[in-house]
């Protein structure tokens, strides 16, 4: 017989609620292979698990990689989002923490050096406002009663009172509001209790508050901080029929309109007793990875969203076997080869195989000498990928750039999670 929530030990509830939180992609470990925190020899995910007992990794504003306790306050929910294992109609094991319990767990883990912060989300219990009050209360206890100075990321609920979201931002380093699905029609179909306008309204208000708080702190040293690490969001990939091109355009609009620090992509995973409106199979994890790469192209490599979309196939999807930068370069070979000794930074950033660090090193090195192919090889990780697209003092690719089988030549034999 299922155990009543009140009979569960703290440990049992932690197992349930840390495992339930793994579907939330809003921290950096989500880009890696997901590991079940209930797995491992001792049921704790094993050594090195990115999610064992709810520990995930995120990047702090200063660029450090930090470990977070990633957990839900509860996986009870009054909403019925089709893609979510915690939805009202799911018959998953349920559990619930009080805000005090999560605050105590955080402090205990923190004192033992297991974590440096907390990522807290929740299913919706009673009402959006009631749930948001509980999330805020947990952050309040940590900050005001325990004087906790570690990192706090709070998932906020767009349907909650704006005053509560404001309070969340006063305690948290980062807040996030999930847009959930790339299209409004997908949201209406798969998350009938949610409203795209309400979600975007909450993102817009949070953006304004972040800007206001920054302004005030410039003028008044002791003005309160508001989500100093900004806001982020998450989109589920593969639950509806949105193409990668749709997702890229949506992400770009979100970055532009709401000043987001990150858009996280979470490959939809089929859940037990899934609703019939969902696909039976999860999309390949590589699709999620290609979307993260396209996100980087827009944020760090100067690609416009429609240029990333040009790298997609006739269905609007990015190729899985090669990265989107290479796919774009193969389609627009007329832009190559570029001269490593004369090309602008923007042109060099388009060369497959050259990352931002390598481009920085090339620009620096060519101030002192004219570069040969060997010099470039020393500054990059994959000269084979670079050669067809680059001219150096002693290298010109001649017909290599135009070869019909260039794609086959450059397709990795065994895909690795490379970053350009
Ligand atoms: S609101 Fe939707 S996505 Fe969030 S926990 Fe409830 S059912 Fe899941």
TrEMBL record:
Which Pfam families would you find in this protein's record? Answer: Fer4_12
The terms under GO molecular function for this entry are: catalytic activity; iron-sulfur cluster binding; metal ion binding
InterPro entries annotated for this entry?
Aldolase_TIM (IPR013785), DNA_rSAM_put (IPR023874), Endo/Exo/Phosphatase_dom_1 (IPR051675), rSAM (IPR007197), rSAM_sf (IPR058240), RuvA_2-like (IPR010994)
Q: Which cofactor does it need?
A: [4Fe-4S] cluster
Keyword hit for Kinase:
no
Q: Which domain of life is it from?
A: Bacteria
Species whose genome carries this gene: Erythrobacter insulae
The protein's name = Putative DNA modification/repair radical SAM protein
Its keywords, alphabetically, are: Iron, Iron-sulfur, Metal-binding, S-adenosyl-L-methionine
Q: Does the keyword S-adenosyl-L-methionine apply?
A: yes
